Amino acid sequence: MSLFKKFFSKEKKETLDKGLEKSSSSFLNKLSKAIVGKSKVDDEVLDDLEEILIASDVGVDTTLKIVERIEKRVAQDKYFGTDELNKILREEITTLLIESEKGGNIDSVDSLPKPYVIMVVGVNGVGKTTTIGKLAAQFKKEGKSVVLGAGDTFRAAAIDQLQIWADRVGVTLIRQNMGSDPASVAYDTVQSAVKQNADVVIIDTAGRLHNKVNLMNELSKIKRVMQKIKPDLPNEVLLVLDGSTGQNAFEQAKQFTKATEVTALAITKLDGTAKGGVVIGISDQFQIPVKYIGVGEGIDDLQMFDKVEFVDSFFK
Length: 316
Description:
This protein has helices spanning 10-19, 21-35, 43-55, 60-76, 85-100, 128-141, 156-169, 182-196, 212-226, 247-259, 278-286, 307-314; strands spanning 116-121, 146-149, 172-174, 200-204, 236-242, 264-268, 290-294, 302-304. By secondary structure, it is an alpha/beta fold.
């Protein structure tokens, strides 16, 4: 199930192909060089594959898992050739992504009481504000009413940027002065949404990681205060990660999953990097569903993550 209607148009597929072009060409070029002149998948090819996957930011643990699966298939089929490697890799990576979804839950907004509250977390600079703006625009396009909460009260720029998005999209923004209590902003936002009978609430939070204890306390407080209005809030905690940072994104995911219960991931800026493999690794390692990926600067270039289409574009 998803917050948006499940529909993968030709235009979206073209955008996805283009957005993953750097990752795809980098990966496939390396793979082609590794198997040139070889007809059989042997230990040398598997070692090369391991290096290529790690270099593509899939991550060591996930890479070892993928290579182990390939090894098993090679052992079962002694005629396994290099010409089949591409196809088998696609299958194993798709299976891995499907398995990782079991670790999380993506609910439909229509099946839950209104408002559906999304708390957005992530360090500064990952594209958090832009992701919130694009989500608001897409919900609005779906005919849903949206209220935004400017909970990152430590940066005036974050509040102002969110105001620009709210004005652009035509949705309500609840804000207070810089330095205000983020939990107070969250409370006001949810309360306003309840009064308006709004469908969706998206609340921004501060992106500081220098003190994990403070971060944990702050996010816990925001949750507790919202739960005074409705005990099951937030419905979703969305962690935004910058895909172009590769292994850094793994570290951020590690810190935030320790600080709060993350239920879904958004991985941004994949169009400007060859590190698209990070989507595979993070999805597998944290067993949290990747819900959205950013593959361009346009409002519609924040896409619902489709595992099969992603792998297809990655192997274009």
